[in-house]
Design a protein that fits this description.
With about 70 residues, this protein is mainly α. It has two helices and no strands. The longest helix is centred in the middle third of the chain and has 20 residues.
């Protein structure tokens, strides 16, 4: 897997995942929507740690700078 996520993309995904996690555990979001968002947050964390987004690959997208590829 080639990296296709830049550092800004990774940071934004990490922050979004953290916010979703906090909102879920404080009870602000709950139920089915809460679980779906929690799963999405997990995917955001995973993709930010491995610097690869599987949805970018089929479209040939990359937010990674050319020196990091």
């Amino acid at each position: 897997m080639k990296k296709n996520m830049g550092s800004t993309d990774r940071i934004v995904r990490f922050i979004a995942a953290a916010v979703i996690g906090v909102l879920y555990y404080t009870g602000t979001i709950s139920g089915t929507l809460g679980l779906v968002l929690l799963i999405l947050a997990g995917v955001f964390l995973l993709t930010s740690f491995i610097s690869f987004c599987p949805l970018y690959a089929p479209f040939g997208l990359s937010t990674c700078s050319t020196k990091n590829r």
